[in-house]
Write a structure and sequence with these properties.
Protein name: Protein of uncharacterized function (DUF3757)
Pfam families: DUF3757
InterPro entries: DUF3757
Organism: Yersinia aleksiciae
Number of helices: 1
Strand content: 35-45%
Shape: globular
Largest sheet: 11 strands, antiparallel
Number of domains: 1
Order of helices and strands: HEEEEEEEEEEE
Radius of gyration: 16 Å
Number of strands: 11
Helix content: under 10%
Keywords: Signal
Length: 147
């Protein structure tokens, strides 16, 4: 018997949702084009610099975080797939995208400030920018089991 994820979410206590945020700049380490940041929950953010491996390029500042809304209209408004946190590097025109556990996650930003709804002809998303990385909070939701 299959259940819709939204029904399962109604039965799940809110305490099981993990509240995360983009990594603070000072917590990001780098080695050979790989950028890493550990979370207090034991998870890890991972980013890989594209192109030829160059000398280490320090992170300059936080750019943005993105949550893409589900195309499934039956899902809740402030839920979608958390995509990435993007940082500007000190090298001109270089950025690094960091992913939590190196994948996208079903997440909620309900009740979280700093997220702005935006719409393009292709998709709808929420963007968090203009604040410190740790201000871009989101909650990882229970993931649907694989078939």
């Amino acid at each position: 018997m299959k259940y819709h994820l939204s029904f399962v979410l109604l039965l799940t206590p809110f305490s099981v949702f993990a509240t995360l945020h983009c990594p603070e700049i000072d917590s990001i380490s780098q080695r050979g084009g790989i950028y890493l940041a550990a979370t207090t929950e034991g998870g890890q953010w991972v980013g890989t610099l594209q192109g030829a491996v160059s000398p280490p390029i320090p992170v300059k500042d936080f750019n943005e975080a993105l949550l893409i809304l589900n195309s499934d209209k039956s899902s809740f408004v402030d839920q979608g797939n958390f995509q990435k946190c993007t940082y500007n590097l000190e090298a001109e025109d270089k950025q690094i995208d960091m992913y939590y556990e190196n994948r996208s996650w079903l997440a909620s930003i309900s009740g979280k400030p700093h997220w702005v709804h935006q719409k393009t002809p292709l998709f709808e998303f929420y963007r968090c920018s203009g604040v410190a990385a740790e201000e871009c909070e989101f909650e990882i939701l229970p993931q649907a089991p694989l078939p």
